[in-house]
From TrEMBL:
Annotated EC: 2.1.2.3, 3.5.4.10
One Pfam family named in its UniProt record: AICARFT_IMPCHas
Name assigned to this protein: Bifunctional purine biosynthesis protein PurH
Reactions listed under catalytic activity: IMP + H2O = 5-formamido-1-(5-phospho-D-ribosyl)imidazole-4-carboxamide; (6R)-10-formyltetrahydrofolate + 5-amino-1-(5-phospho-beta-D-ribosyl)imidazole-4-carboxamide = 5-formamido-1-(5-phospho-D-ribosyl)imidazole-4-carboxamide + (6S)-5,6,7,8-tetrahydrofolate
Species assigned in the record: Ferrimicrobium acidiphilum DSM 19497
Free-text comment on this protein's domains from its UniProt entry: The IMP cyclohydrolase activity resides in the N-terminal region.
Amino acid sequence: MQALISLYDKTGLDSLAPALIEAGYSLIASGGTAKALRGLGIAHTKVEDLTGFPSLFGGRVKTLHPAIHGPILADRSLPEHVRELEDQGWSPIDIVIVNLYPFDTDPSVELIDIGGPALVRAAAKNFASVAVVVDPSDYGWIRESLATGITIEDRRRLAAKAFGYVSAYDARVANWLEGDDSPLPTHQLLNLRRTRELRYGENPHQPGAFYIAEGAETGWAQAQWLGTEEPSYLNFFDADGAQRLLERLGDRPACVIVKHGGPCGVARRDEILDAYVEAFEGDPLSAFGGVVAINRPLTPELAQAMLERPKFDVLVVPSVVAEAEQIILGKRRRSRIAVFPGAALTVGIRSVAGGYLLQPPDELETVEEFRLVTSRVPSQAEMTDAWMAVAVGQAAASNAVTIVKNQAAVGVGQGQPSRVDASRIAVTKAGDKARGGAGASDAFFPFPDGLEALIAAGVTTIVAPSGSVKDDEIAKVAEDAGVSLLFAPRRHFRH
């Protein structure tokens, strides 16, 4: 029995190679893999010794040879194939272990792998006889299976993963060759792999699953879900929305609570427990059963304090102490904890009938980009609240109007076809807390009524994008009321 190994990422080679030797396999290795095996003191045959040809053209041609591909592709069930192998003096290759140059980290023509994908495709095509391994995370169970043999079902599954792996690699090369550095290139090639069956989709009668883009395993692909129940589609959706807003709020201890896709509690404080309490108090009725995200580790003390508030479905944390996990899940068995490592935002994709809509992430402006259009100058604290109100509104469904006071959301009106209705909801939610707070609208005020609702509630600083034909009238209403009006450079619709 023979195993061919050609690896860029040699993680796990030190344990897999000895297991193959022990199971009776002879090892064939290319270039750097042969060097690594030599360093480990593991017997092997170099590819060039098997083919009789040296590595050519600076390494561009190493494994592209009949003496390599023939023993991989030969159909062992066909006598004529077996006879041809014997005539050539070749022994079958039963396992092919390959991973490719990391093209996406440093794209160049020289990192376009040719021999590696050819080996993978050849082995995957002949899965009836050959096991192809492209993922180091599979090495563990592969080692355990060597004694009894890798089953046809496992080989088929490995082949499917291998074709997906090569397809994703080709997609990254194709995108690079387009030469288009924009976030919306001419071709957007996706290769998705299902990694998790969800409890259900948006509703219990709809199935749901989580997919990752091959070769881009970041963010939720790396998250760890703790708890007895699988997360649902909406758990993922709301947890992602909460985490995105949380990351925009900076390094200060912060908490975000999301329910049905929109923020209903947001706060920043010097201590994370205070941030959680303030976020919850922003709208305690809506927060019940929502998704809570914090940007500090979950400690036993924090976990115990959280149990004093009504239940949440999901708690998103950067890390968790084992004792804290037991405290939460021991008392709330249907809740889940998501340990999220963080990730950069990527292109947003939505399906429509017959196609897809793509757009880059919505960038949040800085306080310095606001333009004051009234004589009243807001304080530094009011400016901070105004910026935070914009951040909360960016995460809310449009039309959205938000009120923030002392770095805590006190009123969020969202998902309204009418902007004045969004203002009225925000004011109603805030009550007396609106007085002295900062308000934000995710788009311009088409009429003064939405602005007037905020002013009547006691909001003293208001920010909204400009662009309305009534901008001058809006500014005059604010000036006459003695409040600060700031025009922002961007609209933040979200649907």
